What we know:
CATH architecture: 3-Layer(aba) Sandwich
Helix content: 25-40%
Strand order of the largest sheet: 2-1-3-4
Order of helices and strands: HHEHEHEHEH
Low-confidence stretches: none
Strand content: 5-15%
Number of helices: 6
Radius of gyration: 17 Å
Structural class: alpha/beta
Number of strands: 4
Amino acid sequence: MGAYRNVAEGVNPQARGIDEILSEARGRLSRVSPETARARQLAGALLVDIRYESLRSRDGAVPGALIVERNELEWRLDPQCEYKLPQAEHHDVEVLVLCNEGYASSLAALSLRQLGLRRATDVIGGFQAWAAAGLPVTPPLNEEFL
C-alpha cells in the first residue's frame, strides 16, 4: 500500500508532513554555518546546545555553550517566564540553537522566534558539522561510548 494511508484509514487530509514544516521553518530563519556560529559565540551570542545528555556524553560538548535540553527550551529562554535562565534577560538576545544534525534546531529556533526572540536561529548541520569543521569540542565524558 505504500508509506501513506488514505483518508478512509484515518489520515487527516489537512495534515502537513514534517518535511514541509521543516522547510517552512528554515525559510523563516537566517541559518548560520558552524564557523559563523563560533564567531558570533565569541562576540557574545548565546549558543544553546539542545542535544540530549547521552549525545553530549557520547560525542562531547561545545565549550561555552549553554545546555538546555529541547523539552525545556522555551521555558528557559522566554524572557517573560518565571522559569527563565539568567541569560534570557530580554527579547533581543542573539540565540544560536545547536542540535545533533541541524533538524530539531530549526524547529526550536522558530519556536523561540514565536516567543519574541527575533534574533534566534540555528546552526546548519548541528554539532556533527561543528565537530567536522574542527571547531572546539570538549572530549566525551562517558567512557561507555569511547
